[in-house]
Amino acid sequence: MTALLRSELLKLRTTKTALGLIVGMVGLIVLFTVLGALLPKESVLVERKNEFEVLANGSIASAFAAILGLMSMTAEFRHGTIRPTMLAAPRRVRVLVAKLVATTAAGAVLGLLGIALSYAIGRICLDARGIPSNVTSSDVRLMIVGSVAVSALWGAFGVGLGAVIRNQAGALVGTLMWVLLAESILFALVPSVGRFLPATAANVLTQIEVDHQLPVVAGVLVFCAYVAVAAVAGAFVTTRRDLA
Amino acid sequence: MPFGVVPDTVRAMPEPVVSVDALTKRFGDLVAVDDLTFHLDAGTVTGFLGPNGAGKTTTLRILLGLAAPTSGTAHVFGGRYGQLADPMRRIGAVLEANDFHPGRKGRDHLRALAYATGIPTARVDEVLRLVELESAARRRVKAYSLGMRQRLALAAALLGDPELLVLDEPANGLDPEGVRWLRDFLRAFAADGKTVFVSSHVLAEVAQTVDRVVIINRGRLVTESPLEELTARVAGAVHVRTPQRAELEGVLHAAGLQTTALDGTELLVAGAQAATIGELAARAGVTVYELVQESTSLEDVFLDLTSETHT
After folding, report:
1. A234 — alpha (psi -120 to 50), left (phi > 0) or beta?
2. A164 reaches B (C-beta below 8 A)
3. Which value does ipTM take for this structure?
4. CA of B19: how far to CAs of A33, A111, B15, B30, B95, in Å?
5. What's the pTM?
6. What is the DSSP letter of B105?
7. Distance (Å, rounded) from C-alpha A222 to C-alpha A198?
8. How far apart are CA A242 and CA A244, in angstroms?
9. CB spacing of A7 vs B112 below 8 angstroms
């Protein structure tokens, strides 16, 4: 198992995919945090919810973790490397588990990098403007743990979804459309149902004071359940489908 | 005989390296492999032949555990591929020449496989040398030519120093130099007493490498035989033009030759030499206008075996 994990970690390091995602993520977080901390009026940013939002911009790392998970799985099908991979390790579930662990770890690293970046940049910008801070130390703990945990889980979620969907473009477009469009619309229209959707449930760890949001523990459990279902479904179809 | 004692006759029989038994694979209505049975012994070099779409690739993928059979079995070293403890150390396979991430360096592709199977990294550099790909090892695969990709795929297959090498159409897209390189390589591999199973839709590609052939068409076995048996079928036919066809036919039949009438004045005589027919005709006083020796090639025999009429 450690051998397969080493192999999967090496695969993540040896294409430009991860590097490209990190560069894109850092750029986006810096941009969002700087604009978020400098553009709004002081009266807006003294509110705890809004300050939290600026400092926690780094949790968009979870989107990049999801893309990394989706790509690491679907690239195997797209480029046919699934064949040599499975020839080397014919127990397919073990390969999937190694991939899940590798992308979970990679997601956690992205989440930590993202939140460290947005917290540091946001703090510097807000301090420079002399805006008093109103987030509590437990808020800061939540945003750090939240960004790391949500990004790690999204990495695993991506692998599970990728194993089921297989088609790289379809998996990426489908997932992003779902999260960015379908879920936001559903949550806005029917919040009582929408709050149980995966990305919205996961947001309990990255946003505060959102109306209709689930309690933190419930949101985490719901999201974990989605990840588990995707992983099991991925394992189920991977062991049954031909790799021809 | 007490339990547990294996009679000598059984022990002397080596277990086949590959056993395909009553293998069938259906994709919906399409029967890709149809009740196929054949066996490969250790140390043999076998060509797996048949036209495109005959079911060769499907058979190989089932054999390697990548696809599941509809019924029947395909075993390597006595069991399913997935049951082998460390398959890369026993079987090396080259299925597609392009199963690489284009953005990954050739050496990293091999390292990932070596890590997964606990093969030391030193072996990666060894196989890169073996397939003469050291100079390109640190370049990304997208910059590789088809021939280089074939060799990288072969390097991956050789990582575990396997006893059996399975190759699916390895000569596809290779230039003549590459084909010769591959042929020499396979011969050297087999010379170590190892087993090779190589598929092709062109007999000529593998005729100089293999000592046995398994020929399939439309998923069914056509023949499984030593190459010499196929070579023996390569016999000349003679095309004869004569105004006295009936008389000549009588003479030739009396000499034990088989003839096929083509039209009023033309005749095809199988398995004969032009000189023999000329002499027989002269002795019988039959006029002959034309005698043409037609040579059949090994490829003709192969095409004949796999042509529609034989299915």
Report:
1. alpha
2. no
3. 0.94
4. 64, 51, 9, 24, 19
5. 0.86
6. B
7. 7
8. 5
9. yes
Which residue bears the tokens 């019988």?
Answer: B284
Residue B44: how many other CB atoms lie within 10 Å: 19
| Gyration radius (Cα) of chain A, Å | 19
Q: Which two tokens stand for residue A43?
A: 């009266």
- For chain A, give the number of residues: 244
Q: Note whether B90 and B129 are within 8 A (CB).
A: no
List per-block mean pLDDT (blocks of 10 residues) for chain B, which spans 311 residues: 51 79 96 96 94 94 96 96 93 93 98 96 96 95 93 96 95 84 90 94 86 94 88 74 91 86 82 84 92 75 70 41
Q: In what order do the strands lie in the sheet with B258-263?
A: B258-263, B266-270, B237-241, B290-294
Residues paired with B259 in a beta bridge: B269
Three-class DSSP category at B87: helix
Which tokens belong to A192? 């009582």
- Total domains in the fold of chain A: 1
What is the span of the domain harbouring residue A61? 2-240
Interface of A with B in 1-20 (CB under 8 A): 3-4, 6-7, 10-11, 14-17
User: Closest-CA residue in chain A for B166?
Assistant: A87
